[in-house]
Amino acid sequence: MKGITWTQVAQYWVIITAFLIPAVAISIKLTGHAMPQIGMGSELLGGTATLLDKLDQIQSDLGFGSYTEPFIGAMWDKTNVFCTALALMAGTAGLPHVIVRFYTVKNVRAARWSAFWALLFISILYLTAPATAAFARYYMIDSLDGKSAQELPGWFEGWEKTNLIIWLDDGDGRVQYRGANPKDGRENEIFRRGKLEGAEVAAIREGHNEWLASGGPENSPAAQGADGRAVLRDLKLSGPDRDIIVLASPEMAELSTWIIALVAAGGLAAALSTASGLLLVISSSVAHDVYYKVVNPQATERQRLRVGRIVIGFAVVIAGLFGIFPPGFVSQVVAFAFGLAAASFFPALVLGIFSRRVGTVPAVAGMICGIGFTASYIIGSVYGGMDAWCFGIGAQGIGVVGMVINFAVTISLMPFCPAPPARVQALLDDIRSPEAEDA
């Protein structure tokens, strides 16, 4: 446990260094300020407008809507923003691989300081993210829109080979990067791969080239071949892949190659840091809490270790499949995971600490109902095209409703089920007055 914790400490410094150096360098290059959070709201060098004002103007002209205006559209109205934020907060409190880190400290006082330092260091990363997003958005639009094939930056050519960003020209030889309602009425030509395979992308490109060769916009697409842009629009794959923003931003700003390599190393460190903690919790939970405590109380340490290794193998395969066939872009999938944690673990933890009546049956029943509702809603929305029928809440924030269901089921079953045994209630008393033990 301590070994993995110290490993993740080292990985954090790799992550934060890889994230901050490009953000600081881009901020200095654009605004002259070393702090990205200040640079985001400062005037651009050689101009009179601030970065955010300029970005708002560009976004509005190209039909994307204001960059800084909150609560745009049904997907991110006030209700969805509130539910998503609450699901992320409650989910964080219920993440098992975060909670298990408190096992490495000596006492409650140390645990509180551990939480303080964790929040402080995490806030450095999270408070820099909005600035990085604004810088990357500005560079992406500025370096693509209106450019000819010869004028396209090198980063575009490199990422186009991955099919994560695609240019399908309308015949004028210049990139048109547009939103839904551009002022000039031009159509968007920048698309992303999304869930498409390489062969599908090749077929779309071939069809689009046939459409251009037959006269393109001067003739009917139905009569002269399929316009690849129409296909990607129908698949809702308009716009560059959102997962490339952080990785591509140093290239957009034309920073040194070592900074680009550092960002790639930071991304790998982030993946390893998260995966190691989750795999540890998954294996120990199944091997100890399920197999040893419920299935086979007489299991030896060797048997529990074998079960833990088998579980890790299955977890790696399942995670790999989701990595190859992701249900959404990275931040969306993270919101799904935190929503599931909020709907399952958080109510059980809160009620288990503050109530002595929560037994096994109410807690398990509440967790099953909460996570079952949340998971089915997410699956229906992502794979079944289901509408947001529950108060208009999207899949990212539905964990809040699952959390409420969990609380309701657990509390309603508590009067009809036996209370925890005396030793568990004594443990709860110790949790409520830990200073006596530390004194």
Blueprint of the fold:
Elements: H1 2-31, H2 36-39, H3 51-61, H4 78-94, H5 96-99, H6 108-144, H7 154-160, E1 166-167, E2 190-191, H8 198-213, H9 221-224, H10 228-234, H11 245-252, H12 257-295, H13 301-324, H14 330-354, H15 360-383, H16 399-413, H17 422-432, H18 435-438
Antiparallel strand pairs: 1-2
Helix pairs in contact: 1-6, 1-12, 3-6, 4-14, 4-16, 6-11, 8-10, 11-12, 12-13, 14-15, 14-16, 15-16
- The first-to-last residue Cα distance is 26 Å
Q: What is the makeup of the main sheet?
A: 2 strands, antiparallel
Whole-number mean pLDDT: 84
Give the structural class: mainly alpha
Unreliable runs: none
Number of domains: 3
Q: Assembly state here?
A: single chain
How much is the radius of gyration in Å? 25 Å
Q: Assess the beta-strand content as a share of residues.
A: under 5%
Query: How are the strands of the biggest sheet laid out side by side?
Result: 1-2
- DSSP summary, beta strand count: 2
Helix content: 55-70%
Your description of this structure?
The protein has helices at 2-31, 36-39, 51-61, 78-94, 96-99, 108-144, 154-160, 198-213, 221-224, 228-234, 245-252, 257-295, 301-324, 330-354, 360-383, 399-413, 422-432, 435-438, and strands spanning 166-167, 190-191. It has 439 residues and is mostly helical. It folds into 3 domains: 1-142 and 246-323, no CATH class; 166-240, no CATH class; 327-439, no CATH class. It has a two-stranded antiparallel sheet with strand order 1-2. It is globular and about 80 Å long. The chain starts with a helix and ends with a helix.
